[in-house]
Amino acid sequence: MAMTARQRAKVSLYVQAGIFVVAVAAVIIAVDWKTVGNSVFNFAKIGPMFPDIFLVGLKNTLIYTALGFIVGLSGGLLLALMKLSSFPLYRWLATGYIEFFRGVPALLVFIAFGYGVPLAFGVQWDVFVIVMISLGMVAAAYIAETLRAGLQAVPKGQMEAARSLGMPHWRAMVSIVIPQAFKIVLPPLTNEVILLTKDSSLIYVLGLTASQFELTKFGRDGISSLGAGLTPLLVAGAFYLVITIPLSLLARKFESRSARTKR
Amino acid sequence: MNNSTGSTAAVRAAGVNIKDLRKSYGSNEVLKGISLTVEPGQVVCLIGPSGSGKSTLLRCVNLLEQPNAGTINVGSFEATDPDVDLNKMRQSVGMVFQHFNLFPHLSVLENCTISQTKVLKRSKSEASDVARRNLERVGLGHFADRFPDQLSGGQQQRVAIARALSMDPQLMLFDEPTSALDPETVGDVLAVMRKLAQEGMTMLVVTHEMGFAREVADRVVFMDAGVVVEEGPAENVISAPTQPRTKEFLRRVLDPTHIDVAD
């Protein structure tokens, strides 16, 4: 018997939902719940993680992210302007930097600035400085591309109007073009912060003292000290979501706001 | 107090002197040796088919386009001198664009004050006074706190005129100021321009509004294919053109429903 298009769509929907239910059920059946209960969801033993994971771990993750973002944003703006410069040397330098730091794993950058550079120059850097440089330099490469796209999205007539009013190029950039570009890149920039939050976990490769622990280090430490299996990592992961989900919502809000008004 | 700032009568007017101006884009020569004089206080309308080079000529006057050869003098400035202080020169040359190019992130008032405070270094309160006076002048004093996207096209264009006037220009350039407007708002913009002309402002206007040109312009210049074909008093050029190309153009513009079978 022939079905109408609407009936076919309905049947297709039921089939898809059925496949999903079967898949979930298969996973539930396949999992060794006893072991999982002991080593992943063993919340009884994680008491000692509190309140430090919150007061130290979460706080440090936020600080490392903020430091990286500040360096990344200023460096990214500089690189974006260099990339749009009419002076070829600036463009080449910026392109080289961006391609390099987007191309190598952030972990290697952390190792380089955590061990290599201090060794080479015989200096001793504070962890906060290392994080600021490593995270900031990686972030700058990504943010530069985002900002460049934003700067180019500002209509050419804005620069022309500003110049026609007698503004020098730099003043037109600072007062007219950059503010509009930032409004355009606010959603992708928020996403950069989310990536940065997660990348701050790479600091575990450096030797940290207890007061410098961030969320992931807390989780890894808990694995060896609490005897609750991987449960501490689960807790650390939950704290990341506490940071990243609000950011994600914020990005969506910026997006809908810029979609509503062109201003 | 502020002796010369935005006084509504007696404008200090500058003249324009263009000699043998040439401009090419690649191998395409769009201005083929244009000479044109605008006396201080005169209104000159540039008319001609699209692609005739009239907008390019206008944009050369404040060097938004770089000419390849020839000289342009604006008041006491030689615009084509490589050592000219362009920012200084542009402060005395107001420019009104076809698409307004208001700064969307700034209020109407801020649009009119930003260059006064940042470039002319006027105080905030003085800049506000000048801006409000010029917004009054274009009939939009009560819109000072709105944002550009809350205004109609005609209103935005009048704000753009007020923005230019707030710099106390000695010459105003209009690049098809009514071409992007809804028909019912064209009249308000033309009325403002008419008033400016009566106050003695030097104006160079690229336009398709033949009625405005006939009524307001001291001289009309007809351009085609990068050369000045015919120029003279408005009533001569528009009502009694002598060149066949001028006649042909005006016949098409004044009688758009006419179908030229031979073409």
Structure write-up:
The complex is a heterodimer of chains A (263) and B (263). Chain A contains 10 helices and no strands. Chain A is mainly alpha-helical. Chain A has a single domain, classed as Orthogonal Bundle (MetI-like fold). Chain A is flat, with a radius of gyration of 24 Å. The relative contact order of chain A is 0.14. The mean pLDDT of chain A is 91. By secondary structure, chain B is an alpha/beta fold. Chain B has helices spanning 54-61, 86-91, 108-118, 124-137, 153-165, 183-198, 210-216, 234-239, 244-254; strands at 16-25, 28-38, 43-47, 69-74, 77-78, 93-96, 171-175, 203-206, 219-224, 227-233. In chain B, the strands form 2 sheets. A 6-stranded mixed sheet of chain B has the order 6-7-8-3-9-10, with helices on both faces. Chain B has a 4-stranded antiparallel sheet with strand order 2-1-4-5, with helices on one face. In chain B, helix 3 packs across helix 4 and helix 4 (124-137) packs across helix 5 (153-165). The interface between A and B is medium-sized, with 21 and 28 residues.
Task: Furnish the topology, listing elements before pairings.
The complex is a heterodimer of chains A (263) and B (263).
Chain A: H1 5-30, H2 33-39, H3 52-83, H4 88-103, H5 106-121, H6 127-153, H7 156-164, H8 169-199, H9 215-226, H10 231-260
Helix pairs in contact in A: 3-4, 3-6, 3-8, 3-9, 3-10, 4-6, 5-6, 6-8, 7-8, 8-10, 9-10
Chain B: E1 16-25, E2 28-38, E3 43-47, H1 54-61, E4 69-74, E5 77-78, H2 86-91, E6 93-96, H3 108-118, H4 124-137, H5 153-165, E7 171-175, H6 183-198, E8 203-206, H7 210-216, E9 219-224, E10 227-233, H8 234-239, H9 244-254
Parallel strand pairs in B: 3-8, 3-9, 6-7, 7-8
Antiparallel strand pairs in B: 1-2, 1-4, 4-5, 9-10
Helix pairs in contact in B: 3-4, 3-5, 4-5, 5-6
